[in-house]
Specification:
Layout lengths: L7 E2 L3 H22 L13 H10 L12 E5 L5 H8 L3 E6 L2 H14 L3 E5 L5 H11 L7 E7 L9 H11 E12 L1 H4 L20 E5 L14 E4 L4 H10 L3 E8 L11 E3 L2 E3 L11 E7 L2
Length: 294
């Protein structure tokens, strides 16, 4: 982020959600260009995120593939990752709270000639929204073999227990949940410092972190709805929320490469960006969690 303020605010979920939605709605046209999907000549390839995540998920999938499986992508944004899963044979449903993002995702799937379903809802209400959509015939199913979320997602949520309950509510018995996201230890760092320096909260206390930034992580352009709210969640909170929802954790990994340039000090490497040596071995930048519904 280009400009940050080290301060917190006690805001309601509704207030934080409204500010974040206004911001994400404005990001859509900027991200369409930044992601390279603004026109019909964009390359028809798997997103880098999905390529990496599929390799991590493969040992836990039947035949090592999502081909033929019902997959729900939570917080899908403009659908680049969702559509990538459709390209490799999954029957996909994307969930997001941004109407503009879902409209962009639907256009992308149509241009690619791929079938996908889209549901507009807060991820914290995903289970009920999917059941309602399925009852209307808007989506083919409200329960899934795979529930997936990845990169820059759960910091926008204030209640991970409620989040994990949605996942449990839409996973079939034996179904797989997979998340890869920015590591909370990385989020506690001052991204503009010349060394690894902790500045922000690692442990949450219910308060949101307040940010004011006219830029975004992909593409050129500025946003007028600059204020956003994020909630810190330590790794233990993520794991315990998933366990508490009744899922069985099968694997937890931490990584040194993140798909976007969190800090100007990060170097471009295969798969994204990483700290320069020797800091690379000192601080994780991502985590991934694989869990299964018994």
């Amino acid at each position: 982020m280009a400009e940050t303020h080290d301060r917190t605010a006690r805001v309601t979920w509704e207030e934080g959600r409204a500010a974040n939605l206004a911001n994400w709605e404005e990001r859509v046209p900027i991200h369409e260009v930044g992601y390279g999907i603004a026109d019909d000549v964009a390359p028809d390839t798997l997103s880098r995120v999905v390529r990496d995540d599929l390799m991590a998920m493969a040992p836990f999938l039947p035949g090592g593939s999502v081909d033929g499986l019902d997959l729900c992508h939570l917080q899908c944004h403009i659908g680049t990752d969702t559509v990538s899963f459709a390209r490799v044979g999954a029957r996909v449903t994307g969930v997001d709270f941004s109407p503009a993002a879902l409209a962009s995702a639907a256009r992308l799937a149509e241009r690619r000639g791929l079938t996908a379903s889209w549901v507009e809802t807060d991820v914290l209400d995903a289970a009920a929204a999917l059941r309602s959509a399925a009852s209307r015939g808007d989506v083919p199913t409200a329960d899934f073999d795979v529930v997936y979320t990845s990169i820059g997602a759960i910091c926008w949520l204030d209640d991970l227990d409620r989040w994990a309950a949605q996942i449990a509510g839409i996973l079939r018995p034996g179904g797989l949940f997979y998340i890869r996201d920015g590591h909370p230890a990385m989020y506690a760092l001052d991204e503009n410092a010349p060394e690894l320096r902790t500045t922000y909260r690692y442990f949450g206390d219910g308060a949101a972190q307040v940010w004011d930034d006219a830029g975004t992580y992909a593409g050129e352009g500025t946003i007028t709805s600059t204020r956003t709210y994020e909630w810190p969640h330590p790794l233990s909170e993520v794991v315990n929320a998933v366990i508490g929802a009744g899922l069985r954790v099968e694997r937890l990994d931490e990584g040194t490469v993140v798909p976007w340039q969190f800090s100007p000090r990060m170097e471009s490497v295969d798969g994204g960006f990483a700290w320069p040596e020797p800091d690379r071995a000192r601080m994780p930048v991502t985590f991934s969690l694989t869990a299964r519904m018994p």
